[in-house]
Amino acid sequence: xxxxxxLFVALAAACAVMAAECVIVPRPVSYEPQKGTLPLTSKSVxxxxxxxxxxxxxxxxxxxxxxxxxxxxxVEVAPKSKGAxxxxxxxxLGEEAYELVVAKNGIxxxxxxxxxxxxxxxxxRQVVLHxxxxxxxAVECMTVKDKPHFGYRGGMxxxxxxxxxxxEVKRYIDILALHKMNRFHWHLTEDxxxxxxxxxxxxxxxxxxxxxxxxxxxxxxxxxxxxxxxGFFTQEQVRDxxxxxxxxxxxxxxxxxxxxxxxxxxxxxxxxxxxxxxxEVRTRWGISREVLCAGRELTFEFIEDVLDExxxxxxxxxIHIGGDECPKEAWKKCPDCQKRIADxxxxxxxELQSYFMKRVENYLATKHGRSIIGWDEILEGGVxxxxxxxxxxxxxxxxxxxQLGNKVIMxxxxxxxxxxxxxSDREGNNEPLCGGGNGKRQLPLRKAxxxxxxxxxxxxxxxxxxxxxxxxxxxxxxxxxxxxxxILPRIAALAEVGxxxxxxxxxxxxxxxxxxxxxxxxxxxxxxTYFFKGIE
Length: 536
Ligand code: ACM
Ligand code: ZN
What we know:
Elements: H1 2-19, E1 30-40, E2 45-48, H2 54-68, E3 73-75, E4 85-89, E5 98-103, E6 106-111, H3 114-129, E7 137-146, E8 152-158, H4 166-178, E9 183-187, E10 189-190, E11 193-194, H5 203-206, E12 210-211, E13 229-230, H6 235-247, E14 251-258, H7 263-268, H8 297-313, E15 318-322, H9 329-333, H10 335-344, H11 349-368, E16 371-375, E17 388-391, H12 395-404, E18 407-410, H13 413-416, H14 426-429, H15 445-449, H16 459-462, E19 465-472, H17 480-487, H18 490-500, H19 506-523
Parallel strand pairs: 2-3, 2-4, 4-6, 8-9, 8-19, 9-14, 14-15, 15-16, 16-17, 17-18, 18-19
Antiparallel strand pairs: 1-7, 5-6, 5-7, 10-11, 12-13
Zinc ion binds at residues 274, 293-295, 331, 334, 336-337.
């Protein structure tokens, strides 16, 4: 009997330790369990000391109602009773930092700004879900002090290869917010479809947003589905999405990819191409040799007009102007492009691309006060010091850019491309068709987690790394459930690299992922289950 009792005590102690373990993803800077619990019921209130906190507080109540069935309410008058959740801004904390204290007499969240409070609420959301009880939750007492390592924590969505509804884009943004990510990079223009309404150029959406059919299966299948495909976002819808993201402290960075990946624009306005067409919106994936003519002024007028409208829709500091995968064959044969090279005394077509990107950067800076991001190809032929480089082909490109003194966002494909397969044994696991060297490359959760954005950089160069990003290319991802399958749970790994760098531990992350999965379930997210089944 005594032995059974001792076993019981030991088991109870083990459970208590387990219950006191941190449940928060991404991992906070410091987490200290305290003794006792706080009861949370539908009578509990969220008190906001500052009017600006009403919105995040209301959003938190909505999360708690949907995920736990508890209907909390927001109050702006300090409650006399114990047990309230008290939110306030404490400017002595960093902008995105927060402190969360769960004590027996109440919960307090202080944030360095509204955004910091919002992150504290995201952490509390996870804590509440894992608290015992139904109508009366027993929230474990704890002290959490937290702030992100990197200021830029992004997720990209390609809506060109396949388009998604406004509601689906908002869901993508919800997923970013849950993981405390703060940038949504929206890839809006491509060879296979132009997806943003530009009032001055109506053909972009009349012609450029539709392709006549789509390749079936891999890019070399030579089979097409025969079905017209397309769509676009109106300016009204874009504004709605930008607003929705801002309410979740996420800045939307639009990408207008140039001078390559522009076939949809060329199909709409053939005079923008070196051969002047005819062109058609591309129906298969890969890289097109047809690109914007860099020799004629008309091209720059077009780009400037488009960017004028884009800038008016997106208040972001950065505008992404692409720059990737621009073959130079058309420029080599084009008299206008060759004349530009000769007139400017440029060495070659790489320098012509550099001229193109710098000219557009200069326009955005002088006319609109915006900065640019470009894919790492902008390093070729010379890059301006003020451009931010998105390193995608490999971390080495980011290292090179950092050594040059440019700001860098790390999104090396081997760690950050969420269109890559998630398991090695794809046949056995029935993974859907995926990208990455025709599906040859794999990116399991563990590998995404192992990204080291500072690898090989000295202390000075590390300062150039502003953050990390996961990229969701959608050639093989036609539906939003499939998008979720690709980004979840890997986006959590990248979020933890971005937020918790220097404080990471894969085993502990894996433990917390099993808990976060319950939140994904509550939200109805269609996450991939390979990791949860122990498959890599
Ligand atoms: C890219 O993957 N072409 C940036
Ligand atoms: Zn040309």
